[in-house]
Amino acid sequence: MEARAEVETPRERAARPDRNLAMELVRTTEYAALACARWIGRGDKEGADAAAVDAMRLLLDTVSMDGVVVIGEGEKDEAPMLYNGEHIGDGSPPAVDIAVDPLEGTELCAKGLPNAIATIALAERGAMFDPGPCVYMLKMATSRDMAHLLDLDRPLADTLKLMAREKGAPVGDLVVIMLDRPRHEDYMKEIRDVGARIRLIPHGDVSAALVAVTEGSPVDLLYGIGGTPEGVLAAAAIQCTGGQILGRLWPRSDEERQAALDAGYDLDEVLDKDRLVSGRDVFFAATGVTDGEMLDGVTFIGPGATTESISMRSRSGTVRRITARHDRAKLREITGERLG
């Protein structure tokens, strides 16, 4: 007998995140970017971050969802808003997990440097990996045409040789993007010894991952030890665009290692994009704060401002680039004086 196709009930449809959420999320990143843009170059990363958090939190409360922050600004006592475990949205279905970084690159914003962004991701309830006590992870990410070559257990030099062969180019054509940190000195030596090039960045794990997984990008690979929360946000974007990210938790101390083991984490497990963010309904949005490789930053023109954002949805694989013009007087009616 021929099997019947499953038909989604109205209740199941209501419980599933729908495409209307995509624009709602863009609104939250736009407001966060606009709020902290007045702090660009002022040398106050805490002030910039607080402005972005306040604005994003205000908008999130208007979104039709029952959201729980899985990746936030820290624990409740450390972050009065958008803390891990906080409930956001108006409480109506769908039930979702939320990952936020209202201002990725607080120091980039404070110093007026490129690639500061406001970002958020959403997935079905229970779909996002909770890193628990582990703040950092070793990770690598690349585009879909090289994804099958990623392996955290293989020497990095060998992976770069395989990528060059797949690309039909010398290893010297490859570019690896990584955070400029003392902990990466051995990796830098390995990359340079094999003949590949390195693009060092001061901050910005998520935007770096986006550059690495974009087909046709001048960057071939993201590699190094960076934030676990940023790894989850990047995985959400990669679920929408294609490509792959692999990560392994990297405890900073014996105490953190023991806390992770006591909580049941397998520190040898390789976490791919499906482990970091599962489910078919994943959304990702980001808005540029300062100009960068992926997005233009906020520009104030007379009484208005312009923003550039990206909106992604895994179910359809759609990636939209959105340029918006904002009237600051009208925005202040909602946000008070937060937008300057």
Rounded mean pLDDT score = 91
How would you sum up the major sheet? 8 strands, mixed
| Class derived from helix and strand content | alpha+beta
The string of secondary-structure elements, in order, is: HHHEEEHEEHEHEHEHEHHEEEEH
Distance between termini?
66 Å
Number of helices: 11
General form:
globular
Radius of gyration of CA atoms, rounded to a whole number: 20 Å
Textual characterization of the structure:
The protein is an alpha+beta fold. It contains eleven helices and 13 strands. Strands 1, 2, 3, 4, 10, 11, 12 and 13 form an eight-stranded mixed beta sheet that branches. The chain has a five-stranded mixed beta sheet with strand order 7-6-8-5-9, sandwiched between helices. Helix 2 packs antiparallel against helix 3 and helix 7 runs parallel beside helix 8. The N terminus is likely disordered.
Question: How do you describe this structure in short?
Answer:
The protein is of the alpha+beta class. It is built from 11 helices and 13 strands. Helix 2 packs antiparallel against helix 3, helix 5 crosses helix 6 and helix 7 runs parallel beside helix 8.
Looking at this protein, list some descriptive labels.
single chain; 340 residues; alpha+beta; eight-stranded mixed β-sheet; five-stranded mixed β-sheet; 11 helices; disordered N terminus
